[in-house]
Amino acid sequence: VDKVTKRGARSNSAKAPGPVAKVFMRALMPIMFRPSLVEKTLGAEYRARIDWDAPVSV
Q1: What is the pLDDT along the chain (58 residues), one digit of tens a residue?
Q2: Beta strands in the chain (DSSP E)
Q3: How many Cβ atoms sit within 10 Å of the Cβ of residue 21?
Q4: Dihedral sign (CA 1, 7, 10, 12)
């Protein structure tokens, strides 16, 4: 049981960002995910509307 616990602690701690990475991520995330970038990249998909009553040609 101790080996499993130690291995789990090692793998879980490797996934968590350290203090420097946390500061770096907090500074960069707002820049990376600005609303204008989301609108520019995904805006057409979000604005698309499907006319469900329109006939479909096969």
Answers
A1: 788 888 888 777 667 788 998 899 899 988 877 777 778 888 888 888 999 999 998 8
A2: none
A3: 10
A4: negative
Q: Is 0.70 surpassed by the pTM of this model?
A: no
- Is 40 among the domain residues? yes
Domain membership flag for residue 58:
no
Indicate whether 26 belongs to any domain: yes
What domain range is 42 assigned to? 18-46
CB 38 within 8 A of CB 29: no
What separation in angstroms does the CA of 47 have from each of 4, 39, 40, 44? 50, 10, 12, 5
